[in-house]
Description:
Radius of gyration: 15 Å
Shape: flat
Number of strands: 7
Amino acid sequence: MATIIVPFGDSRLGFKDQTLWCVGIAVAHWEGKFYWTQEGWCKGSKRSIFWASFDMPPDGAATARDDIECLYQDCLNRVTFEIHEDPGGGGGGLYWTDRGELPDGNILNEDSLE
């Protein structure tokens, strides 16, 4: 059985709030963190990128997490992302596409993970 590490949404209430849908993940093992994207409405500019630590709360309950942080919000459309470690030990980089409508969409973004 899988362990829930980040709870968003409640399947008992249905799936109407698409901003709670976790849709992608990338792992930065050297940081002890994982990053994920959450959906939004098509062309709704509501997609987000979050991170949290590998370490679970002491009681082991995903609902007790206090380390979840939103890095980017209001991304335009279908965010795809990847993480690369800096072999020199300088952290690494987070790279993502934002495939929204022009003029603001269809872009490649980069941010440092230091």
